[in-house]
Amino acid sequence: MSDFNLANGGISLRADEDGNQTTDTLLEVKSLFVEYVTEFTVVRAVRDLSFTVRRGEVFALVGESGCGKTTAALAVMGLVPPPARVRSAGIWFDGVAMDRMSRRQLDGIRGNRISVIFQQPHASLNPVHTIGDQVAEVLRVHRRTTAAVARARAIELLDRVGIPGARRRERSYPHELSGGMAQRVMIAMAIALDPDLLIADEPTSALDVTIQAQILDLLRDLSTESRTAVILITHDLGVVAEMANRVAVMYAGQIVESASVDAILRDPHHPYTAGLIAATPSVGERPNRLTTIPGRVPELTSIVEGCTFEPRCSRRPDWSMAHSGEPPVSTPVPDHLVRCWLYAEDSK
Amino acid sequence: MTESFVEVLELSKHFPIRSGWFQKATLKIKAVDGVSFSIAPGETLAVVGESGSGKTTLGRAMLRLTQPTAGTVSVEGVDIASIGGRELLDVRRKLQIIFQDPYSSLDPRLPIGASVAEGPAIHHMGSRTEQRERVIIALRRVGLDEHQMARFPHEFSGGQRQRIGIARAIAVEPKLIVADEPVSALDVSVQAQILNLMRTLQEELGLAYVFIVHDLGVVNFMADRVLVMYFGRIVEQASRKDLFSSPAHPYTAALLSAVPMTKPRLRRTRIVLKGEIPDPLAPPSGCHFHPRCWLREKLGNPSRCSTEAPSLLPASVGSDRLVACHYASDVS
User: Fold this and answer.
1) ipTM of the complex
2) DSSP assignment of A239-307
3) Its pTM surpasses 0.90
4) Chain B contact for A237, CB < 8 A?
């Protein structure tokens, strides 16, 4: 089984206050699988996914719809309910095995040390409570804060995420807010307990571009100021370029390439990554035709052995090689991992 | 200037808000407010703006899918409000529309062949056999084939459904297609296929497009000219080249700078706008953009911005580039 562990190389050990050795790795996921089993088929939504997130960094999971990026992040949180089957070789959060935690232990981490922001803020907020109450509730549930203290802190948080007139606006209901403002409320709730990890699932996809710019700036500031790590789930390579330090590109449930953002955008190795970058219309030079990736994403039920991108690949080596099994993960350049037969020679 | 195909003059669409005992129209939302522009044959005009800017309403009012409150739309020199019957039907044939959502814009109970055949039948385009021929040609042009005619929309992917939508539009030999966010529901790899297809069809059939879109990358790929809308009004109208190389309106400049770029060398200093698109029931006085305007702030908040609505005027003498800003010369 191939291992997509990115932690080796560049891990610095440092001592915490008690003198214990801690690494810079905050989250480590090893060989995660998520499958949906129905009477007739098995949908293999996430296959053999391994990645690490370091403290304070923005790590992007990028891919098109149905590639498994959201499922993967939810599975890490233990939020993919049965009948889905989730298994992994281990998920460690801050050195503790999350996949072996009880429900009670998980609840101590979820929403507290790990929090999530979803794409549709209006669908995630409770329509019958004021936004101030909803932010305060987080503090009251997890920190057992008194109502008055929680309220004061909620106003501070709403102010922190850039809601003008927070003292007045905390009495607003979600329907009175625009999409951008509602997303700010979601962020206020997510950072209320000063989490170590923030999972942001397409946080700006429903927003206009000038509002998107505001929200991305806010997330970046929060991440730098409080050393909160962010897993940014997105389909938009532009957002990745602006926000992330490292990125993993997903295709049909697998990570096909992973490296620093600059390395991926400057020198994409996997034909899918290269195709995705070339297919994105930019505001720079105008080509006569956009580069396309022929065909479409495979059905996750019909995944055959071998490379899943092969039918759409413009650079496929020879047929028998592409079908001879899972492409190996190789490291053509340090810290740059590719799952592709083209680089099998470079594998060390 | 070439002879224009469509001429839109002072087009407005206001939606009354009724309230109180007698449902009196107490307020109105000016979704489109006195918009004028023209489209030459075979040209692509992109209409850009954020949600609530009125770009979709503009497209609909232009086609009379919604009755405009004021203003005229002339097609080949004829005011479409003054005609009816066969004449109007023929104008409707020449102007087609493609919608954003390829899932809800096709009748789920109609095989796609029948769906594409509706247009040619309504417009009596030849005999039954000829109409069928047209359907097959239209489907082939968009990359589908006749064997798929009996299939239903749910059997197709999002990208293929958008192809069917395009086939429906081109089956009646239109001269202009209003495309309302035709690719924003699609994944990048599929989006590129559809955009290429639309470019090819334009070259082959001499189509003009009104491309209503929020993605500036798509605008850059498709447009010849661009209208930038803010709050129901045009704030800038320019050729694609001019607009992307040197935006003349402070809003356009902010919009361009907010686009996340994949190529690091293309990144520019970002102008982050404060605040949001204002409440449509209480539009800001003077220039609608003034409460968010970075240029106004830089110029020390001149009172003219909040008192006097700027007119859409040539950026310089004789220029075909129009801009609605009192201080447009200070933008660059």
Assistant:
1) 0.84
2) HHHHH-SEEEEEETTEEEEEEEHHHHHHS--SHHHHHHHHHS--SSSPPSS-----S-PPPTTSPPSS-
3) no
4) yes
